[in-house]
Request: fold
Amino acid sequence: MLFSVIGNYSLFLGLFFGFVLFYFSVKNFRNSKVLDTKILSFTFLQFFLVVISFLCLVLSFVVSDFSNETVFNNSHTTKPIFYKIAGTWGNHEGSLLLWLLVLTLFILIFLVKTKNQPIKYRILTLVFQQIIIIGFFIFLIKTSNPFNYIYPIPTEGLGLNPILQDPALAIHPPILYLGYVGSSIIFSSVLAATTLNIVSKRWASHIKKWILSSWIFLTLGILLGSIWAYYELGWGGFWFWDPVENVSLMPWLALTTLLHCILVLEKKLILTSWVIILSISTFALSMSGTFLVRSGILNSVHTFANDPERGLFILIFLFSLIFLSLFIFFFFHKTNKNNLSSFFWLSKETAIIVNNWFMMYFLSVVLIGTIYPIFLDVISSQKISVGPPFYHKLIIPFLIPFLLIMAIGPKLKWIKSNLDDKIYLISLLIISILLSILIVKNFSSNFLINTILISSALYLFFITLRDFFNKGFKNLAQNMAHFGFSLLILSILFNSLFSSEIITNLKVGETFENTKTKIVFESISQKEEKNYNSIVAKFTVQDSKGKLENLSPELRIYNQPNIATSEADIKTTLLSDKFIVINIVQNQEFFNVRYQVKPFMLWIWISVILISVGGLVSFVKKEYEK
Amino acid sequence: MKNKLIPFSIALIFIIIFIIFYKGLQDTNIYTPKIKINYEIPSASVELFDSNEIVNTLEIFKLDKFYLLNIWSSWCVPCREEHPILMDLIKDDNLKVIGINYKDTKKNAKKFLKELGNPYDKIIFDNEGINAIEWGAYGVPESFLINKNKIIKKYIGPLNKSSMEEIKLFIK
Reply:
């Protein structure tokens, strides 16, 4: 009760300081010799107020204060304390407050960290960032205030959706938001730099850190979401091309491309238009992700509430920002024509540009697959389903040249180059092809495409692996990320090629047996926990080598809300995962049993972590590489 | 002139996108198909499960009989529940049951039918879940009662005793 009042007023005050900051920034911009100290203190104050507000919401969740509507809708007294806290951002209102928290935190860090940058640039970035912050404040207060009061006070809350009660999902939103919101700083900064016409090498090396940090968080955030889907949804998959997954992938693709462009800009002061447009689109894509998910225009587990008013607000806000940035781009940005002519076809920058175009292609495929159904429905009232086959057909063939360029590109020098050690490159290619023929030989279907795909991924794998030994710490970050990417593609390919699945119905005590596997349904037992009851089944699985494994999947019935979920039991080893999940067949003593062997599952996660560690290495390394 | 054209056309594109999203918002439950009762059945080319032939849907429902179109899948748990009802319904000569095998693999589907019996006169193989959408289906299982190329009744979710009685009344 008290917390809600404090939290609510902090929000209003925070909004007030947004306007104050806007006013002082504009004033300071006119006669800017030094940065007004007031600006820094007000920025801190604004951040502090949002922290207070956020803590109030967390506390309301911890003490289960059901006079707060958000807590009532998303919490329950029997929930473990960990999920009470995680429940704070497991809903629309709380997650927006988290957005705001990160927005204000980042602009504070930005102001503190950029002391040696031009004053005008710092102020202007603050102005653009405040526009975003004020927009989010108004959005939060007007359409989704987390501190709405209900009377009479309910004695019990409605509970958090059980599928959201998972450790990976508890930290997935904050990490993902650090990535999303980090792109807002890039957006504001690029608008400021364009307006002042200071897009330079110096600016590039300063904004690179921000791009890297959001990129790392975004990568990890997507990874966590994917891990959650694998462990919790009980389908045995890790990526479903669900619109919500796509909206996190799109900013990632844009950001990855931006990361490569900024490296070129830092070295050679070309590709400025690319950098500006990509910075704008990364943020616009993050925002439209919020729009698509929160407006109810797409249906998914993330759609907390279907409220057209919210959707309308984000839509108008998003497009105002897009038009503002378009205006700035066309009005202030001057292309430097003489730089463009100096491209030589065989050089690092050409390779990066070619890869950029591939990335843009992947981005468009995902974008079209996500929003085309909406367009079609509005224009012609037709419904279509865009699923994995669409993405696979359009993306997989283009991965082949993409991987090859990723392998050879970093070998090239800036400006103009000849390929050194050609023999090495060719012999590695031949080894990769032979090896993949050996691997794919036993699988008749799609022999050709699989062989070519695996060879190109193996090629990148070998080349980056060799560089670890050859070059040591030189280009470690890039090498690591590319190595991780080749490992990711290989793991995904092997995973989809060599997975096997058994679906059957078993009673307790029955045995399923085929040539390779023997599944014994040993017993079931009941278990009572604080917020759910569960049936635990015990299975013994014997594989062809006679190795025994005990697996115990669960069926949980949560008390509030009353939802049954299947908890898969997964035994992870270095080379493969054994995955078993059961479902009730109603009014019968059968259980529907699904058993899967999924090779290289662990390596999918490891490779994505490697990719982000690559980013981290680049983030922490200072000047020594230059 | 050329310099102005590019910004304007880009702005125009964004305005169009805005309008479409705006209109999309008005109709929020965008993926909920309309309940199509007394509609003509959709005419589309479909792949048959057993023979891999491509035929037109109108061809499948051409006889002067009652048809029950049942959308099912081997991975769908409620489909197992309703299966005995389908087996029961085909005892009536006046009704033919047609299946749409939704987002499934042939191997698993065949195992399912071997285990529980095959009530289907014909099965449409809908690996990518596209045909089901043309019928206006929400998900699996779902059944449509069809007579003279018209959908006369739609059952969302598994069939039960009462819907079975109702179907029997219809086809008498």
Chain B touches chain A at residues 6-7, 10-11, 14, 18, 20-31, 33, 74-75, 77-78, 80-81, 108, 111, 115, 128-130, 133 (CB under 8 Å). Chain B has two domains: 1-30, 34-171. Chain B has six helices and seven strands. The helical segments of chain B are 2-26, 57-60, 77-89, 106-116, 130-134, 161-171.
